[in-house]
Amino acid sequence: MVDADENTGKYPISVVARLTGVPEHRLRAFESAGLIEPERTEGGTRLYSDVDVGLVIRIAELSDKGVNYAGIREVLDLEALVQAEAVEENPDSEENEEGTE
Questions:
Q1: Which of 64, 96, 66 has the alpha carbon at shortest distance from 83?
Q2: pLDDT tens for residues 73-94?
Q3: What's the CATH number of domain 4-96, 1.10.600.10, 1.10.1660.10, 3.90.1150.10, 3.40.1190.10?
């Protein structure tokens, strides 16, 4: 089950850099490439959600293996498609049982 808080931006870039080991300049590059889109405060501060942190880790893994940003976008799109199809094929999975508890 996906918690709504997992999608809420709460970590500034410095915390995400420490949590993931990905330097701030590289996090900004991921954003510039359109691979991730953290929330922004009114003052422009980036706030990353738990989901964003997981995505940063995945992007860094692929990048470290030599996959360029265009390739990473393709991989992420395919992974999202596979996940969506899995949920569609199995509507009784945990992700869809929010109302049954």
A1: 96
A2: 999 999 999 998 988 888 776 5
A3: 1.10.1660.10
Q: Write down the pTM of the prediction.
A: 0.80
40 three-class SS: strand
12, 70, 83 from 29: Cα distances, Å: 16, 13, 26
Q: Can you give the residue ranges of every domain in the chain?
A: 4-96
Residue-level pLDDT at 100:
46
Host H or E run for residue 39: strand 39-40
